[in-house]
Amino acid sequence: MDASVNILNWFEISVSDIARAKNFYEEIFSIKMEDSDMMDMKMAFFPFEMNGKVSGGLVQGPYHKPSIDGAKIYLNANPDLNVALGKIEKAGGQVIMPKTKISDDIGYMAFFTDTEGNAVALHSNN
Known about the structure:
Blueprint: E1 10-14, H1 18-29, E2 34-38, E3 41-45, E4 55-60, E5 74-76, H2 82-85, E6 94-103, E7 107-113, E8 119-124
Parallel strand pairs: 1-4, 5-8
Antiparallel strand pairs: 2-3, 3-4, 6-7, 7-8
């Protein structure tokens, strides 16, 4: 494998109500997500640029079941994850681990559950 290639190239957050989940993520990150129907799935995509960086989306479908025990993904909340973290409860989620310092070099992390019951992480340098 080419070491210059990211091992992660896409992520999907499983949801049971695409409209509710889309509203939640748009609210906490102050973004707009594009909708799509693909095969037997409903999707909403996080904003991205075609420059090789990782992106992903929300997926409602027969093989996507929300769970607090699923894979953990870290969403970019730079420059300070407190901004997104401060919007989570108002948007219908729950903070389950407050902003916590990892190290001076790596920055900070926090965990929350979204409106679908997924445990998701935030990361920021500050």
